[in-house]
UniProtKB/TrEMBL annotation:
GO terms for cellular component: cytoplasm; microtubule; plasma membrane; presynapse. This is Interferon-induced GTP-binding protein Mx. Its main location: cytoplasm. The keyword Secreted does not apply.
Amino acid sequence: MGNRGMEDLIPLVNKLQDAFSSIGQACNLDLPQIAVVGGQSAGKSSVLENFVGRDFLPRGSGIVTRRPLVLQLISATAEWAEFLHCKGKKFTDFDEVRQEIEGETDRVTGANKGISPVPINLRVYSPHVLNLTLIDLPGITKVPVGDQPADIEQQIRDMIMQFITRESCLILAVTPANCDLANSDALKLAKDVDPQGLRTIGVITKLDLMDEGTDAREILENKLLPLRRGYIGVVNRSQKDIDGKKDIKAAMEAERKFFLSHSSYRHMAEKMGTPRLQRVLNEQLTNHIRDTLPAFRSKLQSQLLALDKEAEEYRGYRPDDPSRKTKQLLQMVQQFSVDFEKRIEGSGDQVDTVELSGGAKINRIFHERFPFELVKMECDEKEMRREISYAIKNIHGIRTGLFTPDMAFEAIVKKQVVKLKGPCVKCVDMVIQELINTVRQCSNKLESFPMLREETERIVTCHIRDRESRAKDQVLLLIDIQLSYINTNHEDFIGFVIRKGWLTINNISIMKGGAKEYWFVLTAESFSWFKDDEEKEKKYMLPLDNLKVRDVEKSFMSSKHIFCIFNTESRNVYKDNRTLELACDSQEDVESWKSSLLRAGVYPEKVFVESETTTATENFSMDPQLERKVETIRNLVDSYMAIVNKCIRDLMPKAIMHLMINNVKDFINAELLAQLYSAGDQNALMDESQEQAQRRDEVLRTHQALKEALVIIGDISTSTITVPMPPPVDSSWVEGAGGRR
């Protein structure tokens, strides 16, 4: 055969298949399917049998092929057949294959000529075939028979379309010579899906049955009703030949004699017949293989490159060498240590873009999760005020206190500080979990040695658990230290001095000097003012009991903004004055001072009224003095707890880093190897897993197979030639099936 023939292409492709089969992979050359399309009794099945060289398809009149037969030809050393619906059963007698096709067809479609789009999958293994997929489709019919539905023609067309619309499907449009070619349904369907004629080959059968004095010479010469790929004439066995068990080889010899002896076909005998059809298909397949090879070669080269380094390591590998085991144990522990440090400390190389590393997650715990737990711990406001109120009353006991007690402040603060223990211990637990997760992730690289991996995880995890109790003890000690001394002298603590600043007393009479600026000091108990900010000469001290604040309209002549303090019991606030008018340079300063007074328990007039109503409904004491003390302590507790929280948020990461993370890193660097040596037999630790042994063998076999495959691809490239596509022809004579309908 031409193009170095199938006898040359088959061994090369078989070698490629064998190279991949040895490593359990498929050689994905994506060879085209060949669909045989034609009317009933056009000789489609005979054309298929000629490819296989065996009689195995059902025969008869009318519609014989009633389900698509997907025939996979697979090159093998022996010859047998298998059905997908009979897994494991091998058919060596091809008469049994025919009977199974008929039985399976009847099982789905019934015995009365019904059809079904469900395909029958048949594999034929033979040393005489190339790996192809051939599809025998039901013949196109016009008139329903038996229990066939009225739309049988449309159903068969739709079924055929499912296969021939694929770009990789080569269409054999089979038409008997004793029918009108211009009305060939097979060619019309092919024209619909392949208007350029790139994958359609016309096959003319039954040339020996034409009326005497007629021939198909002009059609076969592609002069009358031309196709781009032309026509090939074949002479199949007659029903008499089939019944007489005429051998296919003998039939092909008779076909050759027919073309050589017929006066109309003698000059083109070499371009006719089944061998020519096989050669044309072979050319198509060879072209496809050659087109596929560049991408296929690139893929194989990429796989080979990826395996080169690993295969080189395995090539001189001796699993039972003691010196290798010792060296590898050292390398594994060092790699584990490096991986752990990179995951905790961060690294610029091999950055994970899929998930956060252990170090990044711990950072999030320190600066997001832990602060969130502290905020979440904040108590109920009403409950806090109730507790402060009870603390003040219980400290005073039967007596009436004149001043806000320090002991109430300390009692409430300590109660709040104790609540910090929960979030702190939870923070340690979260960090420990991330450390253990990081250890497991790093030990994944030890999976080739299960005992080493298990022992490494056990030793490091035990050390982490041992450090856990120490870290928690130290963290709780930090809280106990905070409880041991309440430092009200801290620079950030507002203390009992709430605010200092310059204010102008606006309602001093002109006789006494008029409006004058003084240095004011607001504490939790009093509101005092001095001559200057050295606070040596005190002018007056105003107790805060029964005081409240209200706004004063700005004077037309004054640029100052004014608010005043007055007594709720209508007493004089300052000397003969019922109110103390205080002036600031801006409205912002007024609001700021009012806010400070509010923290000291001096309410604006309206808020005070509402507060009385609210506290009455909550069964609080309506004593304004007590309310002011509660407000004072509440503000002091907030101020002090802000200091404590800030301190704990700063110290917790430092304590955990020192006691846990750095300690574990040092342990892995300095102690892990010694602990592994003392744990037992080092040779047993380095025994590779069965999976690793299989992996090593697989890598070496795959590497060798890839090298062989690349050599074979080179042989295919150099031993085959590309057959150019025939030039376009005017095939407008074929009226598309869709247009006709």
